[in-house]
Design a protein that fits this description.
29% of the residues lie in helices and 21% in strands. With 446 residues, it is of the alpha/beta class. Bound molecules: zinc ion (2 copies).
Amino acid sequence: MLQWLSAVAGYYTLVGVFMKIQFLGAAREVGRSAVLVDTGESKVLLDYGLKISSEDVVAPLRPLPVHGYLDAVILSHAHLDHCGAIPYLFKAAEPDVFTHPATVPIMEMLIKDSVNIARSRKQDSYQLSSLKRVLRKVKPSDYGHEYEVTSDISFEFQDAGHILGASMTKMHVGDYKVVYTGDFKDEDTRLHKGAKPPGKADVIIVEATYGNKEHPDRKELENEFIEDVKAVVDSGGSVLLPCFAVGRAQEIVQLLYANKLHVPVYMDGMARAISEIYLEHPELIRDYNEFYNAMRWVNWITNPRQRQEVFNEPSIIVTTAGMLSGGPAMEYLPELKTLKNSALFFTGFQVPGTPGRQMLEEKKMNLGGILTNFSNVNIKYFDFSAHCDSKGIHKFIKAADPKLVLVNHGEEEQCNSVVEWVKDEIGCYAFAPELRDKFELKDFVG
Ligand SMILES: [Zn+2]
Ligand SMILES: [Zn+2]
């Protein structure tokens, strides 16, 4: 892979802005997103997240460290694989943290939750005082405004259509224009409007979670999901819907509301607090009226005793954790297993190695130390993704008409598939960087 060419004396003044991009994480992997932009004058990070897996023994995997001074972090969104390692930076530095205002309370909630989980597993983590230091340095950054980060770097955010506040970053570094997509979805969902292509850029750093896959049509998927849920409750059964707390839980409740299901729908876990943040941002929601009504319609589980009563009649429970790695979902599973005609429908991707993936593939999981069989439960996965698929990735790259494409945030096969497509269809430089790889822009962009 490419090596960084060392600078010679006077180099910076001869060629104008000098700029390199280095991958400190999310290189041929999903997790620990971290891209360093270094102009020689300024250093800015795009995201600094963790890679969390159920096999972590010591602590979740961090990105490579940043050496020396750091001016700022531009944070695309609140998921821990993008923000979870930012507090570590504050041991040695006090960088500004530019992020969308809606990202701030969600990040705070997710980081606090992850620190508590780390403590309960006796894993290494930072203190919550570092989170306070991060929050003091936040520079709230709205969509559609240009923000100056340093004397030679400015940026503008646009809606990435992924979760509340998720932002695509359009950077100006001297004369170069660099787009960092972060996680994005180009198609509308019931909750969010899809991202618009970001326009022309010299360089695009693009996510490839689904670099070689196409999602089903969202409308058809919604119909299939509703039909299946209806079939279960019509036969007297109940449905447990493990959902991610940010975005998916809200979308699913809104979908159930819009289809006028006549059985009680409950929402449990962190999704409730996150929904309150969503309610504060009507401008970021596609159909706020429907969303607001859905949030008033759903039954909130506010104390653990209520959980024992929900299965007294056919019902639907939307709860965390989305991959059955903890949360209130654990408390519903033992009873769900004993019910007639019950179902467990996953509404998000189940990462290999998680309890959810085991449940999906083997119909069993570890409950309180006992491997428990769920063979009598109807278990199914619905591909409600908040990421675009290969068609969306291709569309955004084409629209950027770039000279250099850097593909990250995807497994190796997914990243390589996007690189091959770029080489065949666009013909410009394209790489799936490995960890530590550095790219000097003048070598590619001129
Ligand atoms: Zn994300
Ligand atoms: Zn991500």
